[in-house]
Amino acid sequence: MSVLGTILVVDDEVRSQEALRRVLREDFEVLCAGNAADAEKLLEGEIVHAILCDQRMPHESGVSFLKRVRELWPDPVRMIISGYSDSEDIIAGLNEAGIYQYITKPWQPERLVDIVKEAVQLYRLQKETETAGVDVKATPGHIKKVVSVKRGVAKQLYDFDRIVHSPESPMHKVIELGRRAADYDISVLITGESGTGKELLARAIHYGSARANKAFVVENCGALPDELLESELFGCKKGAFTGAYQDRIGLFEVADGGTIFLDEIGETSPAFQVKLLRVLQESEIRPLGAQRVRKVDVRVVAATNRDLEAEVEAGRFRRDLYYRLAAFPVHMPALRERPMDVSLIAEGVLSSVKTSFNRPGLRFATSALEAFARYHWPGNVRELQNEIQRMVVLADADELQAPPLLGRRNGKPPAAAIQGKLNGSATLKDKVEDLEKAVIISTLERYEGNISRVANELGLSRVGLRNKLSRYDLRKNA
Predict the structure, then answer these.
(1) pLDDT digits (tens, 9 = 90+) for 96-155
(2) CA distance 158 to 154
(3) Of 24, 386, 362, which Cα lies nearest the Cα of 195?
(4) Residues of the chain whose pLDDT is less than 50?
(5) Which of 202, 397, 413, 420 would suit a FRET pair with 231, their CA atoms being 20 to 30 Å apart?
(6) What is the CATH number of domain 5-127?
(7) Nearest CA among 402, 318, 348 for reference residue 166
């Protein structure tokens, strides 16, 4: 049975501890401590969602203890349980210790369970809305309403029908695949070049699924070293590693019941891939420095601009993890493969830019749309968006002309542009060099000039790649 969260009960009376454990254990993992010192030891080794603390204990009051907890472990929702209704205690608890609820004895089991459920819900909502560690005065119901409204807006914004494409576009088949994947709780692997809209499709799958009312969280797996990535995804305890200054709930736990989008999954190390595979197999995480594992119910959508099958064959990506992630693969076509969509996307981008830049009269000249159609867009939709924003900033009139720089750039993909040379009468050495140059240019464009990733893709050292860049005068491309 899946538990809703971890509760720490602090009470000097063993019978009270046992009574609370007996009532809560069906829905929660319950930890018990007889005094503040033992409670702090548990907080140092466990991630706790809520604390139920007796007010009158030997040596230290509950309010005094929770005030210290507020400073050292601000995330758990703090509650006092007491047989006394001293108004000074209540005021002190609210003002000094950030108490969420003051529960009086004798308590009713059903009501107590409801209060603790609300506290755990508050903890998760605070994390989801990025207010962790901030004492929220609103009730869980109010925060839930705010989050619900935000999810409703997101569901409309990221609907499949909002993905711009023409009827004859290859995106039509992609969207149909996405709709089918949304109906089933299956892992999805989205492949495609950078800037093709992989995250947009992932969001549409989430908001079109039965998990739409739960969280959708995103992590770029290529942006962090292993230890930080593990902390981000699985959580950590304070002091688990250098730089872990506070407890952190992992994104897998934030996404419990919802979807996690793992972007750039192909950039992860073999060591991290082992840990991720175990999480996907067992549906449980162990935060760094924590003593216990926690069950999670998360749908995984992963994305990469690498050829993961080739990475598997090369031994750089685990075969078992690949098959776990790629239960339902979807490939996003590059923008140059869907020229019929370019003008539609451009008009949509301009509509948004007009609003954000307060230029309501802007429109494209015919020559601009024709230039867009001729260009091969190595940076895909992201490059198109950047180009339109640049055009708007530089425009003195409402009619946007074809950007001069776009016309001077090579209008064909490097491989196509070099084809004439390969079919010509050059020597074999020259043809090989032209082909090598075309491959390097194409890979540089695909990875947006990232030297490390290009070198890894081509099986070169960084020094070897830089020598070739110098030889072919390609340094500016990187």
Answers:
(1) 678 888 888 888 899 999 899 888 888 877 776 654 344 444 555 665 666 667 667 777
(2) 6
(3) 386
(4) 1, 131-137, 408, 411, 415, 417
(5) 202
(6) 3.40.50.2300
(7) 348
The first and second tokens of residue 193, run together, are 């070049």
| The domain over range 428-472 is classified in CATH as 3.40.30.10 | no
Taking only the tens place, the pLDDT of each residue in 52-61 is 999 888 888 8
Closest CA to 42 of 50, 29, 31, 53: 31
Tokens for 2, please give them: 């899946």
Tokens 């069950």 label which residue? 295
Across 328-457, the runs of DSSP E, i.e. the strands, are 328-331, 363-364, 399-400
Q: How many other CB atoms are there within 10 angstroms of residue 444's CB atom? A: 23
CATH number of the 336-407 domain: 1.10.8.60
Specify the DSSP element, H or E, that contains 451.
helix 451-458
**DSSP track, 51-118:** EEEES--SSS-HHHHHHHHHHH--SSEEEEEES---HHHHHHHHHHS--SEEEESSPPHHHHHHHHHH
- Global confidence as pTM: 0.68
How many whole angstroms separate alpha carbon 252 and alpha carbon 83? 38
As a whole number of angstroms, the distance between CA 233 and CA 175 comes to 28
| Strand pairing category for 259-263 and 216-220 | parallel
- Give me the pLDDT at residue 426, please: 65
158-331 falls under which CATH superfamily?
P-loop containing nucleotide triphosphate hydrolases (3.40.50.300)
215 and 257 in contact (C-beta within 8 Å)?
yes
- Strand 6-10 relative to strand 259-263, pairing: unpaired
What pLDDT, on the 0 to 100 scale, is given for residue 86? 63
For residue 282, the tally of other CB atoms under 10 A from its CB is: 12
Contact assessment for residue 102 and residue 82, using Cβ atoms and an 8 Å cutoff = yes
CA neighbor of 300 nearest in space, from 158, 177, 180, 188: 188
Type of residue numbered 320: D
Per 3-state DSSP, the chain is made up of helix, strand and coil in percentages (nearest 5) of 50, 15, 35
Q: Give the whole-angstrom CA distance, residue 236 versus residue 224.
A: 15
- The angle that helices 109-128 and 140-157 make with each other, rounded to 10 degrees, is 40
Question: What is the DSSP-derived secondary structure letter of residue 334?
Answer: P
Give backbone dihedrals phi and psi of 128, rounded to 5 degrees, phi first.
-65, -35
Strand partners, 364: 400
Provide the pLDDT for residue 422: 56
Extract the runs of DSSP E, i.e. beta strands, from 201-283. Answer: 216-220, 235-236, 248-249, 259-263
**Model pLDDT for residues 321-373, shown as the tens digit of each residue:** 999 999 999 999 999 999 999 999 999 999 989 988 889 999 999 989 988 98
